[in-house]
Amino acid sequence: MRTVERHPFARYEALLARLTLRWPCWRAYAALGAIVALGLAVRLVHLGTFPDTLNPDEADFTQDALRILNGAPRENGLFGFDWTPEPALSIYQMAAVIRVAGVSIAAARLTSVLFSVAAFIPFYLLARRQARPWVALLATLLLATNLWFLNFSRSAWNNVQVSFWLLAATLLFLRAIDELQRRQRLPALLFAATGAACAFGLYGYFAGRAVLFALLACGPLLLWRVRGSDQRLRLCAGYAVLIGVAALLFAPEGVYIARHWEGFNSRAGSVLIVSSPEFKADPLGTLSAQVVKNAVAVWDSGVNNNPRYTPVGEPLLPRLVGLAVLFGMVISLRRAYRKRREIDATVWWIVLLVGWGTTEVLTRNTPDGARGVAWMPVLLLFAALGTERVAQWLDQRPVQVARAGTLGLWAIGLYTGVADVRHYLEWQANPATRELRQPYVTTAEFGQWAAEVEARAQGHRDVLNTGEWRNSHPAT
């Protein structure tokens, strides 16, 4: 009798099948792991010495974290405000990391590193819903190396955290809609998880307030799209779960906000265009100018940016990436896509427009890279959509042409990623960029500055203003 030789890993095939981790899936997730590792490495290298200064925002957030660790927390503690004023939870996250990693610039910036790298996962899964694995991986690589995103990923600030909560909430929300339509039942757990992600968005940078509002704005569209009164009732029940969980988790902060409403909105009120003389004199003209300026900033190098956050005289995205974004936006408006894809892209549009509109169009001195960083990953989702359309066109060509085209797209993506990282290094190493970060704290004087901050906290004295420090310690 002939003996059939079994593959040495045959005993594990049933287990792998149950886990749906067949070889193509292994390959995709292995590649995603490599991109995550690469993105983490790019962020960790010289994290404590480059850039070689803490800008005022970084210094203020780091000081708040150090004061928490030295007996001078903000009023109402975890559910109080930071200096902005924003919910203080993100400052406590920074403080926890500093307590574990030690008092250093690298430790102060590490929270942003971890949140930005974690954002790669929901970003890939969102892109994967619209594109094949290699296209989603390429888009994730562009996110990992993007100058705009990388800059805030290496910053002792809380704004890049919103990107993670935005992507996580959007992914969970879309999966909840999938389950609602596919199985004709209420996926309460997914809606609850979406509400939790929205609540944590509310606890962070002020742009995070728009995450919940954006998903709520999707409601009328979905009510129109779903069929039958039963599905509409289940959708309304899902929204009730989402809102209820978000409200429950945010309630401790919400009570404090209600008691200090004016103080909570002081920062937002100062940057909104409605309080500007220009808007009061010409509301429609000012608003339309804001819309145009912020809409073209992604592609137009002539729009001035905040030089502390993005290079002046450059578009917010590299030219080729910007073209891919524009192409993906055009593609998303076509009705040829199947129903799920239409829902996905439309939700992207709503999330982008609500977020970008409230944090950029309706605020002064924009485009501002810091306010817009939360929504930048959504732009790259459209780039994935545009690249997927090119990949579909290549599928219809001869095999040799398709392979050459795929390799060409990867070559362009790799070149763009390397160029973006190099440009970030050159931009931040430029002495002119360093001066734009004034008033700052240098790496060489960080130890002395941190000791003074801690001494003031332990003595329950006032905070050390960065300008005050700079005036008493002239930069050399």
What does this entry look like structurally?
Residues 1-23 have low confidence and may be disordered. The protein has 25 helices and 2 strands. With 476 residues, the protein is mostly helical. Helix content is 70%, strand content 1%. The chain has a two-stranded antiparallel sheet with strand order 1-2. The radius of gyration is 24 Å and the shape is globular. The chain has a domain at 52-116 and 442-476. Helix 3 crosses helix 4 (89-101), helix 4 (89-101) packs across helix 5 and helix 9 (161-183) runs antiparallel to helix 10 (188-202).
The largest pleated sheet is described as:
2 strands, antiparallel
The coarse overall form would be: globular
Uncertain residue ranges: 1-23
Q: How many E-type strands? A: 2
Approximate helicity band: 55-70%
Number of helices, where a helix is a run of at least 4 consecutive DSSP H or I residues: 25
Q: Could you give the order of the helices and strands?
A: HHEHHHHHHHHHHHHHHHHHHHHHEHH
Which strands sit side by side, in order, in the main sheet?
1-2
Strand content: under 5%
Average residue pLDDT: 89
What is the SS-derived class?
Answer: mainly alpha
Write the layout of secondary structure elements.
Elements: H1 13-18, H2 23-44, E1 53-54, H3 56-69, H4 89-101, H5 105-118, H6 120-130, H7 133-145, H8 147-153, H9 161-183, H10 188-202, H11 209-217, H12 219-225, H13 229-259, H14 261-264, H15 266-271, H16 277-281, H17 283-296, H18 319-332, H19 339-361, H20 369-372, H21 376-395, H22 399-429, H23 431-436, E2 441-442, H24 446-458, H25 466-472
Antiparallel strand pairs: 1-2
